[in-house]
Specification:
This protein is an alpha/beta fold. It has 19 helices and 24 strands. Bound molecules: inosinic acid. Inosinic acid binds next to strand 20.
Length: 517
């Protein structure tokens, strides 16, 4: 039924049709409230960025060298989002960062460090020192990988250095084990039950029918995960093996003549996949371009199961192009980033909300997810972005967190962290030039126009604090729109444009603020 409301407050299609040809961004619009029987705290923010990767909160951290390395990615995954590890480092370092996320407390360790019975305890101590292990219990296996026993940390002491592992290990028949077939659908619950029945034992080894070692559970990990499952409404983002999820950024590697170097691409992605990466992100300033399309197609052909995120584009054609090449998610945003100067330098880009609407139409038709990348400065922007997108990517909002790379610096009594665009001169010098279609190894720096700035962000506490505030704000938005989840938000969203007076009215005004928002 047509009401006065429907003349004024328009659903997405009507609103953007009425504003065709006008570039709008978050602050240009507001959302109208709807009748609601939904309490904000009861709303679900669950989303997905591919058929395989579900998230409890629709937020990912940007693949920028001042935003996401392993600490950020771990914090993001623990809070139900996901972090994208940047590529402004050597491949080996990037793989190490991915490994740190994938080996962070998880259920069953499928590749536990092992020792053989012929070693001495002195040898074991040396192995621990060399590898920097923070533990000293080891399954003992024979040369083929069959379980022989377990060395407990208590005997790995210098005073036993000359003793043979074979003489001090707990023999196979006294080690707590389970056949992998008996783990069932919920291995953590099974392991937890077994530990409860064997108080005082803190390692459970998993074997197959032929006694080959298949994994290890540590009591402390299992307890941690059980606490998390029973107490947290927001589930950490984990893979099928209970490891935290993370993504990693991949450049378009090129030969000096500009052709894509498929060997380098293959090697890079193969190593990331071997390290357990959940998604690769082919992140460039101009995703609707031949090289990015070729890369996505190549990765899709050779890594059929891998989640691919590609971008950035701001048009329906761009989304179709990357979807046809094989991307699962397409990243939208050219120019909205807080450190971005693309629109000033190149005169190119589309205000973000319009770009999202146009892209989302193609995303729906092609069955790919849409990620709103850049320009988000408050939780209300996320609500508006999610009326079109499946997930948002944040740079600046996370760059001030203690988990972001880089040191905290003090200036005039205030604490800051560095935050810079990947297209800034300094970041490009460290490797990200390819993202902006430059090659600093072969061209003079003076010929390259930076499209990002180097800046500072005030220190903003921990990822936990930032995400809790943001997720709470998004849940409020859903509550106002009577939406129990993100699909309902999309359905219920009705927009109105706001004037500059309306924008002024939208933020606290005509007061003396004594506390920061
Ligand atoms: P923010 O969340 O508004 O700070 O924007 C972060 C996003 O800006 C990133 O995810 C990138 O898509 C984009 N970005 C990163 N570096 C640059 C740059 O140097 N120029 C333009 N855009 C950038």
């Amino acid at each position: 039924m047509k009401t006065i409301d429907s003349d004024f407050y328009k659903n997405s299609d009507d609103f953007f049709a009425a504003n065709a040809g006008v570039g709008l961004t978050y602050d240009d619009v507001s959302l109208a409230t709807c009748f609601s029987d939904v309490l904000p705290r009861m709303t679900s923010l669950a989303t997905s960025i591919s058929d395989k990767i579900n998230l409890s909160i629709p937020i990912m951290s940007a693949d920028m060298d001042t935003v996401t390395e392993s600490s950020m990615a771990i914090a993001m995954a623990l809070h139900g989002g996901i972090g994208m590890i940047h590529y402004n480092m050597s491949f080996a370092d990037q793989i190490t960062e991915v490994c740190k996320v994938k080996t962070y407390i998880h259920g069953m360790n499928r590749h536990p460090a092992t020792i053989t019975a012929d070693l001495t305890i002195g040898d074991v101590i040396e192995i621990i020192d060399r590898n920097g292990y923070g533990f000293s219990s080891f399954p003992v296996i024979d040369k083929e990988g069959r379980l022989l026993g377990l060395v407990r940390g208590g005997v790995v002491k210098n005073r036993h250095a000359d003793r043979k592992v074979a003489d001090v290990m707990i023999p196979r028949d006294q080690v707590l084990t389970i056949n992998e077939k008996e783990l069932g659908n919920d291995p953590i619950a099974t392991a937890d039950r077994i530990f409860l029945d064997h108080i005082g034992t803190n390692k459970l080894l998993v074997v197959d029918d032929n006694n080959y070692l298949k994994g290890l559970f540590c009591l402390s990990d299992v307890e941690h995960i059980r606490d998390e499952i029973t107490t947290d409404a927001i589930r950490p983002s984990r893979d099928e093996s209970f490891r935290l999820r993370c993504g990693a950024s991949v450049a378009v590697p090129r030969y000096p003549d500009g052709k894509v170097n498929y060997d380098a691409l293959n090697e890079h992605v193969s190593n990331l996949v071997a390290a357990g990466v959940d998604a690769v992100i082919i992140s460039t300033a101009h995703g609707h371009s031949a090289g990015v399309g070729e890369c996505v197609r190549f990765v899709r052909q050779h890594f059929k199961e891998l989640t691919i995120i590609a971008g950035n584009v701001t048009s329906a054609e761009g989304v179709e192009f990357l979807a046809d090449a094989g991307a699962d998610s397409v990243k939208i945003g050219q120019g909205p980033g807080s450190i971005c100067s693309t629109r000033i330098v190149a005169g190119v880009g589309i205000p973000q909300l319009t770009a999202l609407y146009v892209s989302a139409q193609a995303g729906k038709a092609k069955g790919v997810r849409i990620i709103a990348d850049g320009g988000i400065t408050k939780s209300g922007d996320i609500v508006k972005a999610l009326t079109q997108a499946d997930c948002v990517m944040l740079g600046g909002m996370l760059a001030g967190c203690k988990e972001a790379p880089g040191k905290i610096m003090e200036i005039n009594g205030k604490l800051y962290k560095e935050y810079r665009g990947m297209g800034s001169m300094e970041a490009m010098r460290h490797g990200s030039a390819a993202r902006y279609g430059h090659d600093l190894r072969n061209s003079k720096v003076t010929k390259v126009a930076p499209e990002g700035v180097e800046a500072l962000k005030e220190v903003s506490g921990s990822v936990d604090q930032v995400l809790t505030t943001l997720a709470g704000g998004v849940q409020s938005g859903l509550g106002y729109l009577g939406a129990a989840d993100l699909p309902a938000l999309r359905k219920n969203a009705r927009f109105i444009r706001v004037t500059s007076a309306g924008q002024r009215e939208s933020a606290p005004h005509d007061i003396v603020e004594i506390k920061q928002k």
